[in-house]
Model the fold of this input.
Amino acid sequence: MLNIFLYSLFAMMIFTFYIIKHKHQSNHNSQYSPNICTITKYKFTFIYDQKEQRFKVHGIWPDECQECTSCSYPSCCNIENVIYTEPDDPTNFINTNWFQTETNNECEINENKVSLFQHEYYKHISCTNLKTTTNFKNLAETLYNKYYEKYVINNCKTYDQIWLNLDNNFNYIDYECH
Done:
């Protein structure tokens, strides 16, 4: 009888762990952290703006972690330590070249509406060592100036999105049309 009880208890613990683990993974990837995740690839993505008839920045995110190459991209890492402040943007890069829309902040329980820039910052940059919104904006602007004309303007013209695949030093690898 004791064996059956222990077996049942053990099975319940395994099932509970499985449910908690998979529920948690579906929303947030706590196994990723800038301190334990060696990022090997990034995505720098663009959305086609029908109104302006050109591609605009969607976001930048870590796409692959050396410690977990089979995992999907990390998101919402250590979110309790992330503080959003308006970035320094003297060139008006965000209003000019970032796709303008509101979306849910998936990293919060109540999922308040935020700008796409804020959403990307919370969701993906929280998994990197880019500590501020200004660093995030500056990286996006630098990559935009480096790659937009060369790889974005003349590619994927009949698609809604283009994803630039970059290595861990943000060097161009290739692109995907979506």
